[in-house]
Amino acid sequence: MAQSADAQPVLVRVEGMTKEFSQGTRSLRVLDGVDLTLRRGEMVAIIGASGAGKSTLLHCLGTLDLPTDGGIHFGEQDIVQLPPPQLAQFRNESIGFVFQFHHLLPEFTALENVMMPAMIGRVPQREAMARAKEQLAAVGMSPRLTHRPGELSGGEQQRVAIARALVMRPKLLLADEPTGNLDTHTSEEVHALMFRLNKEHGITMLVVTHNLDLAHRFPRVIRMADGRLIGDTTGDRAREADARAREADQAGS
User: 222 near 245, Cβ under 8 Å?
Assistant: First the structure.
């Protein structure tokens, strides 16, 4: 029997994370003392209004940007303290990214795009190719290995992007509105794919989304507002809270 999420070891621990941006003589605080723990194999959705700090949290957690203050611990290591070359290597090996726009390189085939992180990580070419083919097969894209992004549908491009995010076998997958640019049917297919990959490979996933129907399918839902985490519930409880809020809005209108 599979262990519950609470029984799994902690993968990431964020402590007191803040992020400020300078605007002329003013300082804008986008993250305000965020504490967060993610366990191995968890699937977590982050919801909140635009400007709540969701994407900034994701970028800092993935070290695409660094927090102004606070720590990000993978195991016992505070990765914020790593020198830039070591941090870049850690990011390439341990964290996968999927964004709303796939960011595939148009001049390369699907196979070459997926191989790219492995080649950057100095994985031997033969192994990089084998890994890329394995991940493309996992997302149902084996028949399209030699196609360039312009020859693929939006859903196919996002499947390639997911394969690219997984080619280094990361411990953590971060996704920012991964289906925000897709139609409803294709979005459902990509959502199902992500849940299947989590179940089969135990990858920890943190997904930012405005899609409440998607968020409520996740075992854990975190709500953000004004740079803070203001709610951390199961998907069922989050669904019930949103339903009560909608009823209250309708009653007051």
Answer: no
Residue carrying the six token digits 């940007």: 65
Q: How far apart are CA 76 and CA 90, in angstroms?
A: 14
Q: In the structure encoding, which two tokens stand for residue 23, read together?
A: 């605007």
Of the candidates 213, 214, 216, the one whose C-alpha atom is nearest the C-alpha of residue 236 is 216
161, 117 contact by CB (below 8 A): no
- Give me the helix-helix angle, 125-138 and 110-120, nearest 10°: 130
Q: Are 29 and 20 in contact (CB under 8 A)?
A: yes
Residue 191 DSSP class = H
The amino acid present at 27, given as its one-letter code, is S
Residue 198 to residue 98: CA distance in whole angstroms: 14
**pLDDT tens digits, 78-98:** 998 899 999 999 999 999 998
Cα atoms in the 13 Å half-sphere on the side-chain side of 33: 1
Residues 163-215 pLDDT 10s: 999 999 999 999 988 877 777 887 888 888 888 888 888 889 999 988 888 88
Given a contact cutoff of 8 angstroms between Cβ atoms, the answer to whether 47 and 220 are in contact is no
Q: Of the candidates 125, 123, 158, 129, which has an alpha carbon nearest to the alpha carbon of residue 141? A: 158
- The dihedral region occupied by 51, where left means phi > 0, alpha psi between -120 and 50, and beta the remainder, is left
Per the CB < 8 A criterion, the answer to whether 53 and 18 are in contact is no
